[in-house]
Structure formats: C-alpha cells, structure tokens
Design goal:
577 residues; alpha/beta; Rossmann fold; 3 domains; seven-stranded mixed β-sheet; six-stranded parallel β-sheet; 36% helix; disordered C terminus; thiamine pyrophosphate; magnesium; Thiamin_PyroP_enz_cen_dom; thiamine pyrophosphate binding
Length: 577
Amino acid sequence: MLEKPQNGTVASYLVARLEELGIEHLFNVSGSYCSGLLAEIAKNSRLKAVFTTYEMEAAYAADAYARIRGYGAMCGTYGVGALSALNGVIGAFVERCPVIVINGGPSTKQLDLEVDYGIMFLHSTGRLKTDLAIYSQVTTATAVIERAEEAPDKIDEVLIACMTHRRPVYIEISQDLWGQPCPLPVGKLGAALAPVNADSLAECLDDAMARLASAQRPVLWAGEELDRWQLHDEFAELLRASGVPYVTTLAGKSVLAETTRGFLGVYDGRFATPDLQEFVERADLIIALGTTITDFVGDIVAKDYGSMILASQGGIRIGHHIYPDVGLREFVVGMTQRLASHAPAPLPWDKAAVQHPGSGLASGDSPITFDLLFARMSDFVRDKLVIADTGLSLFASAGLPISDRQGYVSQSIWMSIGYSVGASVGAACAGTKRPVVFVGDAAFREGPQALSTLVQYKLPAVICVMNNGIMGIQQFMGHPQYYDSPQVQPDYYNLLSRWDYGALARAFGARHAQAKTLVEFDEALRQAAELTDSPILIDVMLNEKDIPSVIRHTIGRTAPEVVQANFEAPLLRRIVP
C-alpha cells in the first residue's frame, strides 16, 4: 500500500528534503523574498538558520559545510543576494562541493507588472530570469518554481542532480509560494548513478593492472574526488592491497589520516618540497585518483602523459586510452579486487625516503617566521580542522601533519582569496573539530566581518592573520627576486596599509592576541586553547620579506608556460556532467 502524502507547504517540503540530506544549518542573509522560508524554519525544524554578514560568506560557509557533512545549503534574495554569492558558489562548482543555492524570487504579480507595464520589481536588472541565466553556467541543475503544484517534482529533480554529480544546484522559488499548500515528501531521494559497463570496466582494469605489474616505481596521487564521493575506505583498501605509496594534492590533503602507512606528503608541483618533487617525478607510473589537473601540476602531466593513469568520476584515462563509462568508484574497487589475490610487492619506497625540512631550534625571543609558526602548530592543530586560505600560508600549510581524516580544508583549485574565515563559520557548524585558520592580511580583508558571525554564534575558531603588510603571493608570482635580495623593493601595488587588528577584533566582540616573537605566539596559542565559546584573532606580525622555505626554494626556477598540445585535448579534459 502506497504511503499517503501529508499536507504541508512549499517551504516545509523543501525543509524536509534538506533535512533528509543531513543539512542542519542554512547559511543566509535575510531578505523579504525568502521570509516565508525563514518563518517555516522557525517552526520546530531541525534546520537552523545561520545569519551571515554578507552573501559570499554564506556561500563559503555552505561550501565548507558540504565538505564535512556531505551537503550544504545557502539562501539569498533575488539579484543583489544571489549575485553577491556567485564567487563562492563558483568555487564550490569547481571543487565539487554539493551546495544547494536557494533563491527567493519575485512574485507572479511583480513579474506581470514588469512585463506588461515596465515596472521593475525589487532587485530586477530589467531583464527577466537574469539569476537563472547566470547560475545555469555554474551549477549542475537549475529550477525556477512558479506554481506550488510543480514544487515537489522540480525540487526532487534538482536535489537528485546534486547527489549524482556532487556539484552545486540552484532552486528559485517565487516569494508568494512559500506558504502555499504542497504535499510533504514521500520516499527517499537517491543519486541517479549510471549502470556499470562490465566489458569496459574489465578492459580498463586489464590495462591498468598490466601497467602496474610492469612498473618499478609506481605512485598513487590522491585528489579531492575521493573525498567528495566518500571513497575514503575504498582508497585505504587499495593502499593495503597494492602496497603502493601515495601522495595527495592540496585539495586532497587529509583524504586519509596522514599517519597512514605509505603516505609521503603533498605533491603540488613546483611548490612541493624538493625531495618529494624528485621522488614523484622519478616515478614510472603515476596513478591519479580523483585529481583535478591545474597549471600548478601541468608540467608533470605533460611529461608523463603517455604513462599516467588519470581516474575521475567522469571517466578513466590510461595513457592515450580513455574509458568514459567507467567511474572512479568502480575503478578503485575493481583494482583492489584484482590485487587482493596478490601479496603486495615490497617496493623501495618508504617514508624515510622523503625528508621534510625542520624548523631547527629557536629561542623564545626569536622573531616569528612562517617556518617557525607552522613548526609550532603541528601539535596545536591535532584533533582540530585546519583551514588555509590562498596565499603563502596555503603552501606552507601543506607540510602540517594532519592526524585525522578530513582534517584539512582549502580552496586550492579555484583559489579565491578570503575564503577561509567565511568557511570557518560553516566548518564550525558542521562538526566537532575546532577550526584553525591561516590567512594572509590581504585575504583577510576580503571578508573580516565573518568574525562577527563567529562571535554571534559562539564559534571558537582560531584565526591566525599573517600580518606582513604585503600581498606576498602576488609579489612572489610577479617578482620573486624581492624575496632573494635586501635591495629589491616590492611592487607598489602589493603593499598594504597596516590595520589595527586588536581594535578590529574588539569591535566585533572577539578575543585578540598579538605575536612578534615565538614566545608571544606560544602565549597566544595558550590563550586560544582556553577559549570554548569565542573566536580569537591572532595578529602574527611577520617581516615583509619572510617567505616559507617551501616557496623560497623555487626562486630562480621557472615553471613551463606551455605544455604539450594534448594537455588541452579532449582525452585529458574533465567530463563535466
């Protein structure tokens, strides 16, 4: 006997489906177009509204929440709200973070007035369906709901696409529909996964196994898609079955605990440590699993194109052969099953082969530096969640040992500066791990008001602002010689005015500490450790010419500007669903 649907509203239907996905927090900036949804959330819903200071903060928060909990959601108002959030949603699209974007739209009457009489509705651009047109480029599915009876089917269709492709989706609902009658959901949603082509899978595995059998120095290169499709356990089984060591991308860092046997470090091209670079680039077979290829690592792909295995959810490439109907999960599980009947071959690869630079001994009154700071943070970040912003700190943080699975977050593919503080809001809501943020002073200025949200909801994030008065990563990318000679002056457009971070923290109601020396930084960490219901901003005062050693070693080396022509060929390009 079929279950009879109960009566509800359009708003309650959407809330029920979000709760079904495990979403307990909706990040938003309140607006009249979404007031009906917010009123529904206030009615004993498990879903809580978290009010951020601006829409891009809400998008960043939902992105980080999705990385930890599986799905995230944000809500905004038409035009000014949705378009303000756009950069954050694009980052989620590029990095495969399934965020549900809910946009309150104009009513039917408002639309009719604009069409018939030219009376623009609130936040209209003068062109109809502007938000839909823009979001259709950066989401995997969209829906505009203008009648209550179409809400269930359209909402379900879009959410199934989100579950299937692990990318953002867009739902626009007219503001006069939130309270209109609508049956509550019946049954559970599920991803619409394509059937496995057994013959193609067998041929693909034969090809991969033959290459692995003949390889003397294979390496597994783990990327972010292993995390997005929740393949942590499957990847761990593959490691045990194969005995092959592995590295990760920055986006895939901590896909497993970095105490896992066989882990060598983070390989991100020219910014990897020199010994790890040599180690990976001497491999005769690189098996990239769920790895997004960017220009940071394009040179190794070009060099090893014919001997690399690149496996993603959009297909498997083995050398110049492509298997478009074999998915990442099927490939990883299939390889493990093939290897299960073979004892892992002892390989001349071990952790000792890669030496990580130490910070050396330093006295307490030593000026704080990037290297000293990250060496000091190794113990502090244990059992916490590291969030690294784009900049010098991103690459310096690659060497931080992360002892837990999913203990590190960065937007290291899209690389929008200013992501981290907003992301800490979502991360703090999503889990039990305390966020520890590393952000440059330039990146922090992109959204310092997110500190106010942390204070409002008593989220005890630790925000380490690298205060060196310069856009360091921009200076390095443009004229790295500045960091190699005392006489070279910085480019004027990279210099920053000095902010009073203590006054700023106090204005938002946050705690504050300042550190110029190692002993002062230790004291700041002690203060941070004692806080349980308040964020703390640590003003880390660095010399403007200080730079992490992992970046300094690249000065004088040039990365290839052009890679092989087939780097841009359809064989290599990601298949975007």
